[in-house]
Amino acid sequence: MNGRELVGLGLVALGVFILIGGVGIGLSWVLGYWDKEYVETYRGYDIYFFFNIGVYGFQTGGGEWRYFGSVESAENAIDDMLDQPIFIETYRGYEIYQSPGTGRYYAVDPETGEQVSTYWTELEGLKSWLDTLETEKEETLEAEVEGHVYTSPGPSPGEVEVQSPERRLGWLRWLGLPVMALGAVLALRRDEKER
Fold first, then answer.
1. How confident is the model at residue 21 (pLDDT cuts 50, 70, 90)?
2. Of 4, 3, 18, which is closest to residue 184 (Cα–Cα)?
3. Which domain holds residue 9?
4. What distances in angstroms separate CA 26 from CA 18, 21, 22, 97, 182, one per listed residue?
5. Quick check: helix, strand or coil at residue 4?
6. % the chain with pLDDT above 90
7. Residue 175: which of 24, 5, 64, 16 has the closest Cα?
8. Which of these, 15, 13, 17, 20, lies nearest to 170 by C-alpha position?
9. Residues 144 and 110 in one domain
10. CA atoms in the 13 A half-sphere facing the CB of 37
């Protein structure tokens, strides 16, 4: 095996490394992007502060990390995960519940057991929204009542999305293909003497 073939095989390996996202993973490790320090244990969950990105986070039972702007927001999200929702009242045939940690309100159809509303920060806002529903309960979740605040059923209040270097450098993955192709050409190209 000559030098050109070794360089070609090295470029193929580098192309594979780039293609699987190795640049972002390596960069995040070198820069200490995910370095963290322990803050506290709250109800069985360890909360950490990620000092390079300035957020607090805890790992859920499924191994997924959730990130928040404050320790209090993280604690509230843990309460929401562990505690049963608080029944508030029945209004217009719907059961209204409150999330125990974040305090957000939502409505459930007692016949199906399904949540029929988004999360609301105000009980009166949720009731006003329920007033707009038709009796057949066919109204969509996108209905708005002017002057009231509601949130999506997604992230908890204070939850933030963290962009990792692996995601931000995802465009680099496409450089792996031409690097691999160049390496393959160098590794497989034969000299005139060898033919």
1. low
2. 4
3. 1-33+175-195
4. 10, 9, 6, 45, 23
5. helix
6. 33
7. 16
8. 20
9. yes
10. 4
The answer as to whether 163 is a domain residue is: no
Contact between 5 and 184 (Cβ < 8 Å): no
**Can you tell me the distance from the alpha carbon of 21 to that of 165, in angstroms, rounded to the nearest whole number?**
10
Nearest residue to 33 via CA among 41, 46, 24: 24
Domains in the chain, number: 2
To the nearest whole number, what is the mean pLDDT of the chain? 79
Which of 130, 46, 144, 140 lies closest to 93, judged by CA? 130
Closest CA to 27 of 162, 176, 166, 174: 166
pLDDT digits (tens, 9 = 90+) for 65-113: 999 999 999 999 999 889 999 999 999 999 999 988 888 899 999 999 9
CA angle 100, 102, 103 (to 5 degrees): 65
State how far the Cα of 89 lies from the Cα of 107, in Å rounded to an integer: 10
Q: What is this structure's pTM? A: 0.55
Rounded to 5 degrees, what are φ and ψ at 194? -75, -15
**Do 142 and 191 have their domain in common?**
no
